[in-house]
User: Fold these one by one.
Assistant:
Number 1:
Amino acid sequence: MKVIWIALAGVALLAGSASGASKGTSIDLVAYSTPKDAYGKIISAFQGTAVGNGVNVTQSYGASGDQARAVAAGQPADLVALSLDPDIDLLVQKKLVPKNWRSANKYHGIVSTSFVVFVVRDGNPKHIKGWADLVKPGVQVITPNPFTSGGARWNVMAAYGGLRRQGKSDKQAIKYLYKLFHHVPVQPASARDALTVFAQGKGDVLLTYQNEAIYAEKKGVHTEYHIPKATLLIETPVALTKTGLTKPAAKAFFKYLWSATAQHAFGDQGYQPVVKSVAASYHLNHVPGLFTIRSAKWGLNGWPKVNKRFFDPKKGVVAKIEASLGH
Amino acid sequence: MSRYFLRFGALGYLTLLLLMPVAFVFYKAFEHGFAPAWQAVTTPEALHALKLTLVVAAIAVPANTVVGIILALTLVRSRLPGRGVLNAIVDLPLALSPVVVGLSLVLFYGRGGWLGGLAGHGVHILFAVPGMVLATMFVSLPFVVREVVPVLREVGTEQEQAAETLGAGPFQTFRRITFPAIRWAVAYGVVLTTARAIGEFGAVSAVSGNIEGRTQTLPLYVKAQFDGFDTTGAYATSVVLALIAIAVVVGLRALHPKEESP
Amino acid sequence: MATDALALERPVRVGGYTAGSLARGVAMGYLSVVVLLPLAALVWSSRASGPAAFWSEVTRPEAVAALKLTLGVAAVCALVNAVAGTAIAWVLVRDRFRGKGIVDSVIDLPFALPTIVAGLTLLALYGPSGPFRIDVAFTRLGLLVALLFVTLPFVVRAVQPVLLELDKEMEEAAASLGARPIAIFRRIVFPNLLPAILSGVTLAFARAVGEFGAVVLISGNIPFKTEVSSVYIFGQLQAGNGTGAAAVSVLLLAISFGVLLAIGAFRRWRTRYDRV
């Protein structure tokens, strides 16, 4: 009897698996988790336009690194919206995204920006304003583990760049990083976990991005944040995959991400829109001392080189720092 | 007297480690009243996730139960060489972290993996329901075996041998002698298997693709709610999972009325 | 109701020759497809870069520290469960008190709840903002608590069915002969429960070794202090060191396998006089 049920289930399984083919006007969006609300709005708006009418968009949200590896393992994706370049470069390596994805448009595939901020306790009792304050005696800093959370890499590079921007040498900036990590009592696995840990009462300051702080505040988790004097611009990229490039609907959706409606959706969620006409209505446009991951003047020469130097799991600067924590 | 000491100790342990956390989950779910919780679990995505969770469990649990009973009988009653190794293999799925389970499945079924070519022929295992069923089967395999084995050892073979000498056929012997002896063990095995099958997050997450409205089980949906700061919703969905687990226990207990031990 | 001492251990045929072997074949095939082949793929990928790379990956200080912590805390967790689980099972089967049914129904919940919820709940209850003024978050004790939570049902549910089947005649006979409860437990009940306890212990140990979701939040993942192997492996994978992740996974797998084999051997040794 039971054998029959199992056989039937097996048949159902196979039937289910075989019917996975996507229809003509269906596109697959694979994104990291934070911009989910924004994309929800954008997709609805897109479906109201002429090109988007009747297009079905499947959505998958998750941690950026996990999503990249899922796509590399075969998850169908026409557009990938991840939290940092290296995750998309992984897909370039696997030949799923074209090498020239950055030249897709004048925005280099960057759909929104943000920057690293300090979330502090109400009233900022420990007066944490700049990078130097993070290593004052008794200050505890919460940041996700840079290996489990790709996004935490922005935090580390913001710290490094911040010190360089203030005139310190490369050696001094790295020494600062060592000091900083000795002030980190716990390293949660993800940015979201880090916020939870901080909200539960651990630590004096949380390193995160402005958009995450704004979003949390919107959703009822009070976050008081302070923008340090020299901080890193976070750029969130989107790319069309090779399969996406073959679908007119996917290309149309990609283009739509830079429309006023879409950019407003990002802005409403706490991101900085990149389209100038929209950007003016949101948040702060002028952050003193803002630098990017390509600010060679401050020792940041683009993600590929920075990744290798700092985040190589065996020889990177941060790997050495983590190893030093045991002694 | 020692009975009270034992009861007090056991219940104290359970209070701290079980009852408080469970009460907390229920409290957080209904913190803002019944309506927000109900809304959170009746969205289209939530209902789809519930359906998917039940479908996956409905396949994985019976399969693991049947296979579990057979493996238990093999481990205890047969003379197969290497039973010690087989015994240890049965527990391995648990020892793997979900990250590693996902990694193994991806290395086997994923792009570039041993069976990676299937996707090219339209057979989608990963990032579709079959992959999720396989991952669930993987992680919930040990329980029925582990429950049944000690009881089988305990029960002994005399009755089965007697039945055989009296001319009973193999299925008859199993149905009338062996199975009734192990039914409680099977029941508890099914309870554990179901609980794991509905509650598994990590391994299923790695192979599901987490596609909204398509490949999200309830645990994945809980994560999505949590990421979106819908804490009440996340706890409410967890209450749904808890209720399913409780229903299974209560249902099995009702099917097999206990001989109350005085 | 121990195995009849006079009965010779012969294979009891569940089915006739063909049916029994067929069932076993199906079961083995299932086991292979569902578990063994993917594991083989994992082991294979860890070999891909050669034995030198494997060795260097598994001997990295952080990996070794995580391994030691994982195995140590899993062992403690298994031991605590052996004692607590047996006690709880005993109370649930032999004792009578109001609310017993409710308690029995919720024992499996730590298991049915997604691990994120488990972690979050434990952090909220026993962390910095906890209402009981108990703060074990980000310590090894917190790690242990999280593991005890998710392994709670195993020994309990393993011992319960055996206790239910246990014939009370022997205990009653011993009591009528004047034996004290402790002695009855030690000499009559415990030997019969031992295989079940060990069954539950292997499950608890295995789960504790492999747990990720419930510990990742409350343990703090501090390298060399509270970082367990599952988090370390995750980190290596995310950082792009797939070989390292696979290597450490395979080593952990091998050690767990060894421990499980050892527990099985121990059980056979302890129950050697029950068989002929």
Number 2:
Amino acid sequence: MPAGRDASGVTGGGGEAPSDPPEVLRTASQNPAAKTAPAARASAAGTCQSQNLESRIGPDDTFTAARGTPDLGLETSDVTSNSIVLSAEGLTKRFGKREVVSNVSFEISSGEVFGFLGPNGAGKTTTIRMLVGLARPDSGRVRIAGYDIERDFAKAMSRVGCIVESTDLYPYLTGRENLLHFARMLPDGGETRIPELARLVALDERLDDRVATYSLGMRQRLGIAQALLGAPDLLILDEPANGLDPAGIREIRQLIRHLASDRGIAVFVSSHLLSEVEHTCDRVAIIHRGRTLAMGPVRELLESRGAERLMFRARPAQRAAEVLTPFGRDGAARVEGEESVSSDVPRERVPEALAALAAAGVLVFGVERQASTLEEIFLEVTGGETV
Amino acid sequence: MKFIPLVENEILKLLKRRRFRVALLILVALNGLIVFAQTQTRDRHPRRDWRVEAQERVARMQNWERSGRLPQTQLKWVRYEIARVQYHLDRNMDPEAISGPLFARAFANASSYLLLPLLAILFAADIVSSEFAQGTIKLLLTRPVGRARVLSSKFAALGVAITLTVVLGGFVAYLFGGLAFGYRGWGAPVLTGFRLSGEAVDFSTVRALPLWEDALLAFGLAWFAALTVGAIAFLTSVVLRSTAAAMGTMLAALIAGTILPRVAPTWEAQRYLFVTNLPLPDYYSGSPPPISGMTLPFSVVVLTVWALAAAAVAYGVFLRRDVLA
């Protein structure tokens, strides 16, 4: 911990000694790599890396296992896929009298992509700044891989790679020099990972060009390579899709999924783009005016909001709507087109509804499920404010 | 976590940027210009017998002194200069001798209160603020390295850059001066240590040093002055987080330092300002201090206090402040 940062405004925390092995590390491991002794693994690190060159998009864990943290002898990358990598408890930040972030709490497990969704100015970036120690929370605390970031800043940060608000690297240095620069700031020297990471983000050809000549997408990818230098357990990406073209967005999306699914990295993604979060994340939290309004797995959130509607392809539509209205949970069935009627008929009453339609002489050509989008949920929870 | 790689990073960032090359260019251009100007004067006014010239000069200055029209500040310079030239004459030494090594020695004096501090400011003013401007501060401070270490590495790199500048400045001055006036003469004796006490000049402390030793001391003092200015500029860079603002502040301070002793020589409190204390090599060669009563140890202490205080405040601010850039 850097001097002068110990006057923490952290609530809770108890009397736990900083040197306690974090909870996460003690968890029994199902990862085969964890069964070998730490020393043996460390010596195998070299081979792991060379294998990894071929496994750019492959389901293996060698990438994370390749890291050697000799001071610990244990590695969080070896823990089971549902161990908690990041936990934020009751984060609150005030600027003057204004509370920008109010009591925000969440946890992220390894291998999980967590979406942090909210309109601009909702407190996303402030929250991220607190997660990575750039800003000190007025109350609440952050733990990364079990380390409190106020007390064990260096240990906590050695597990994290991040991009906070746009990828800013040194424009007057080359891509390689930038990566070397940040590798030198790591305890175990990430220099050896540079060629591999450059390939992973498809920058190996341009690595010796100055960053000033890079396109925005290339800078973003270089930023991600930088974030991965320390073989982190947690990746924090603030608006990774900002300013990218559709192809770039898809690339980033695939990369995020790959890192989470195949390498077991926990990824925190903030965004104001619903579609972005919906397609990449396992779980989302919706933040608005500094408060979390909803949080849960994307699918659950989509389903639980009751917004699931059915689209009946039937003729005549007007008559179908009349028949369907009593079956709906709430509200009348709506005529959406010449032979389209939407209604929120619950699943168990669909056969009944179809029978009624047939009895009423309505021709039914099909029934489709209309999944609600996060957009609708968002509008619902924020009370109609646009994203 | 090793410290050297961090310093390596910071030096790399300093050297890779245009401003370091600009600083080098300034050193080369300025030295070249001065040497060129001096050769021009020399060619236009070829020297006669240096002894006759020096005697004439003493006589001229004595006239000024007697005329009573000189303001107090200039009077002390005239007295000092008369004493210095006369002292050289008495020992059969040319007071205006010029050679490559002497030119380099003169560079130390001339650059200590403006040029070297200026270059120190050029490096220091953006060493922290540029990270804020580029947004790279967010990466720098989210790596597993404490903020104090990050700042220390920047301090160390600044020290290296300033040292390099002083050394290169001396080297360029010698190179250019030598081109015009010859490269030999490092062993020639230099008279130093004249001291003005009240009305009279005190000769008891005058010593003859070999030029190389004298030059080394002068450059050492110029280096120390530049480091102090660097530390203070570093502070403004941390606090203001804007290179332009930091540069402006420091330049204003430097200019104030060159003007104040001239327009308000009787304002005694200015001896505690860092800018008044910068011409350390001047002291050493014995020219009268900017404000009477100031001595070399006094100035060194004042500068040290300023540098340490600036560093302490810079650390205090940098370690505590939230990064919202």
